[in-house]
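Subject: mismatched residue count in predicted assembly?

I count 705 residues in my input, but I want to confirm that the predicted structure covers every chain. Input:
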Amino acid sequence: MRDQIKEFEERTGHTVNIVAMPSSSSEQFGQYRLWLAARNTDIDVYRVDIIWAPQLASQLLNLTETTADIIGQHFPSIVESQTVDGKLVALPFFTDAPALYYRKDLLEKYGASVPETWDEMAATAKMVMDKEREAGNPDMWGFVFQGKAYEGLTCDALEWIASSGGGQIVEADGTISINNPDAAAAIERAKGWVGTISPPGMLAYGEEESRGVWQIGNSVFMRNWPYAYALGNEGHSAIKGKFDVTTLPIGKEGSRSAATLGGWSLAIPKFVKDPEAAVELVKFLASPEQQKVRALVAGNLPTIKSLYGDAEIAEKLPIIPLWEAVFQNAVPRPAAATKLKYNEVSNNFWTAVHKTLSGEGTAADNLTALEIQLTRLKGTAW
Amino acid sequence: MSTVRSSIAALLPRRSDLRRQRLRSAWLFLLPMLVVLTAVAGWPLVRTIYFGFTDASLTNIEGARWIGIGNYFSVLSLPSGATLYDGLLVDPAWWRAVWNTVRFTVVSVTLETIFGMIVALVLNAEFKGRAVVRAAVLIPWAIPTIVSAKMWTWMLNDQFGIINDMLLGLGLIGQKIAWTASPDTAMIAVVIVDVWKTTPFMALLILAGLQMIPGDIYEAAEIDGVHPLKVFWKITLPLIRPALVVAVIFRGLDSLRVFDLIYVLTPNNLQTKSMSVYAREFLFDFDKFGYGSAASTLLFLTIALMTIACIAVGRVSVSGEAR
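Triage response: the counts match. Full output below for your records.
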């Protein structure tokens, strides 16, 4: 990032300072909301999660006209998600769709195939984990994911449920669909992993904690975003060249693999002091050249269609061209349907899931309680 | 009689002149502090209480509408004919947060008092290098909570944390414990870190009390051959009681509004969510500034009531001792 900023500074003569933010996106959001509400003019450009657009739209600059010349390069579905009431409030920066990381060396060693369903994954994980432990690695685990009570758990649990035919929590038309047997079964299945193939501490892991266990070679599988691909193949990584990625498993025969659509955009607050310079920076960072740099150094999936045919990217990070289809079929979180209330919906949802995973009540009971909470929250309309 | 009265009457105006002058200068000296207090504590408090009665949101704070006690309690009639109770006072999540906070406060303040007392008694004894030990004991208190909480998060990590490693090495536990993740140990982890951090504060206040006790009382007890345990219960404890009560009240109030430690160590865990964490969630994450303000107001009321209760209880026992 710093090299890119330096290039921008040299090219335009503007000075850019990067403000470090907490790694948890829920915490970033709280801080952004505070700054935006206080009309803070210190920050000219925000990096925002794609799900925040409807919640922050009233405080953000309309970019429709200033980016009209370049917006056609981006995937229309992503642009659509950043458009609120006909106004483009954030320019897509990179997109995200998670993968199932697996240790190809271990699967080969024990003659297992790449799993297609969650149950196959759990069985393979258990088998490999047990054998590896017998072979003298007591810290070996089968599967790591994001089990902490935060936005990441909403993503993970949405995948388990959507890939089992359990809907998307709140459907696009605003119907609350979460309380159904398929969803409950999907969460119960995940509960079975905690303490057996996943470390019990999983319930406090975010992306980085799970990558910590994975990258020192102590897990057979991991659910994570593509950024972990580039990091896993870095110089001192214990699993360099020993892993590969595939799409997330499905719940049962006939259902579709579900990946939660993630990604980040760049937005400018309404009361910015120098809107022209801010727009310049946003357009620079979201340009094809810079997205290519981000893809190569950080494994960030571009939002620009043409980059998926790029030979250099295909050679260095084969996950990227492979992922074009994955994120285009990704499941969106119900941010658009629940509008300003999304955060509370997500919080209620991850709380219900976290409760189930930590053994407080059954999935069915917790989802019934969640349905009541969401109905109350919805009131007459979202 | 009448002469006395008249002479007093003659004296009074002069005396009250002086009095008035003194009062005036006293107020003058107090004024800057009062102004600052009103600006940084009074005004925000009034604003928070006011917002608690509105539907304010952070994105539209000027457009806040007065909704009475709606944030605390409201009754909704659904079209289906069912009645729905809503608001803070009927929110089980809020009462859970209250219970968590109270439990945390009682357990951690009790432990801190016991450990603080032990540390203070040790530090009060004469030994070589006492000054160095006194300074060293204060280190946990000097580290900002955020830093120590983050440090403990890594130490308590189930897979590569040093705590599990040491306990395993000593053979005290059979398998790694997920301290901050497991619902059974999350609160224990929070209490451990809080006790580690604030015991020095307790020790310091108790030590100050200990040093106020004149040495000749102990000499007399020694000459009379009183058992050291009896000396502690009959002499030390009653004499440091005022200092102890102040220390416990300070710590109690502090831990009722606990936020940073829990927020860093076990964010969003139902088992440890405190009143402050609950309020912050509504204030900033959910954009329900009014509702969050109502929660903050209740938190303020709880703390105010506890303070009054503590002071009352503290006074009663002190005067009871005097008798």
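Chain B has twelve helices and two strands. Marking this ticket as 'not a bug'.
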